């Protein structure tokens, strides 16, 4: 946990899988025009499960509806992964730092700053599986064998952004407890 975090949202170190692809020129133009959210596929099609989940009738119904909704999301994800168009460069890498407004990830591919990309984060427990977002590459640092890419999140579902904020706070709580426990254990020796 960094103490010099002066961003709008707290950023935490983490390790989560990410799939990404560079946007083609038409898609990049949509982002520049301010309609990048149209590139996100989540929440475009509401199912009867989504509508039923909005009007639960009992706690048991809530649990069943939530389970069905999560199963539907995961099945959609599997189907989409099988049908994905592999046009353009894509990567399967790991996010190493994230906040609700930006992230850093490691990749073997050199990416130029200013590039727009669509990313899918595989965060367990997220309201959408995977978490989709549109990001702009801000800077790229070459390391020993790969590149550290810093990107600004331009478009993300509000629920997904809120989930990232909550996940970060939970990770910070765990880190603080771990530090406190280590200090207490060191005092007792």
SSE inventory with pairings:
Elements (H helix, E strand, L loop, with lengths): L11 E11 L2 H8 L15 H7 L4 H25 L6 E9 L3 E6 L8 E6 L9 E12 L4 E10 L1 H31 L1
Give an overview of the whole structure.
By secondary structure, this protein is an alpha+beta fold. The protein has a domain at 12-40 and 90-188: Beta Barrel (Thrombin, subunit H). The chain is built from four helices and six strands. It has helices at residues 25-32, 48-54, 59-83, 158-188; strands at 12-22, 90-98, 102-107, 116-121, 131-142, 147-156. It has a six-stranded antiparallel beta barrel with strand order 1-2-3-6-5-4. The protein is globular. The protein starts with 11 loop residues before the first strand and ends with a helix. Residues 43-50 and 85-89 have low confidence and may be disordered.
